[in-house]
Design goal:
Helix 2 links the parallel strand 4 and strand 5 (75-76). This protein has helices at residues 33-42, 59-65, 81-94, 113-122, 167-176, 185-191, 211-224, 266-278, 284-287, 301-313, 336-347, 365-368, and strands spanning 4-10, 27-28, 31-32, 49-54, 75-76, 100-105, 128-134, 139-143, 146-151, 157-166, 196-200, 227-241, 244-247, 250-253, 256-258, 317-326, 354-359, 372-383. By secondary structure, it is of the alpha/beta class. It is built from twelve helices and 18 strands. The mean pLDDT is 90. The chain folds into two domains: 4-224, Alpha-Beta Complex (Spore Coat Polysaccharide Biosynthesis Protein SpsA, Chain A); 227-383, 60s Ribosomal Protein L30, Chain: A, CATH 3.30.1330.
Amino acid sequence: MSNCTALIVAAGTGERFGGPVPKQYQDLGGMPILRRSVLAFLGHPHIDKVQVVISEAHIDHYEKAVADLNLPKPIIGGPSRQDSVRLGLEALAKSAPPAIVMIHDAARPLIDAATITSVRKALDHERGAIAAKPLVDTLKRGNGTDIETTIDRSNLWQAHTPQAFYFDDILSAHRAAAGSQLTDDAAVAEKAGINVSLVHSNPDNMKITNPDDLDRAARLLGQNFSDIRTGFGFDVHRLIPGDMIYLCGVGIPHHHQLEGHSDADVGLHAIVDALLGAMSAGDIGLHFPPSDPQWKGKDSAHFVRHVVRMLNERGGLISHVDVTLMCEQPRIGPHREAMLKRLTELLEVMPNRVSVKATTTERLGFTGREEGIAAQAVATLRFPAV
């Protein structure tokens, strides 16, 4: 039995938000909103497992958003939030029911580790606890455009997530409240007579409901990630007889290949060095020495994924990566879109965070003589302000 499972609710259609992509899969600071919410819990010391509830119609979006996070298979939700939570709890009950479940809305991607910790610790002496924010603005009840009365704001709170409960308690409460259409799990718990404690939430723990909220979240994220660093990468590999050249993760049939200990993907190697440089973490040779036989013939995508994991562990994010390939042959234009697609997958960013360019050296130098291919990359990373 796991101690605490985070149940991330992401089954909404996002109709109020609009746009071709549901809001939980839209980009925020270089990654989908859902991924940012999941990562907040995935690395938290008080969370043993992260389980996501999604809409069946969003499986493709989901798989792209959480690629490489090794999450369990998602649970398919229902027509309302309450239905989705209940279905999530029922699925957990059938597999490995936790002692405690922490329920969080995917649309709150700015949840911080301190709030998660506070909500979890509240269950050491309470049966339920929610993140909440005391109301500070004066409240008015209106009648059309006129004020009808002023409402006393004393003891009024805005309910946030996460909301944590002992698993058996909240499962029974949700079963009993099925069909009630309550708006949060605390209301379900209250109806079942479960005492719920209020825990101060980070004021930035906002819920993204409309495009204006997304803009505000991006500004808040930018303020939090104001430590901007740039790294440069450069790599060269010799051309030798062969039948395939790998560039930026894409295999291109050719009458030559690049010589190297791994697959010699000069584009990915330059990107890895740029990322490591921005992290002040050495270079590709330090992490993947060519003298080590385990890297012989290795797909360079492995190196990129490793460095992206390093970046995630350090709390950083990719703002932009730009790579320039220098060669006479092969022609890069026909393969550019495939390269961009592969880079967005490997770097775990949206397409507007990556650029691939190509140039020749006008038949000058070793690239002009088609003796080799060179690549240079620039990576811009953002880290939380120290």
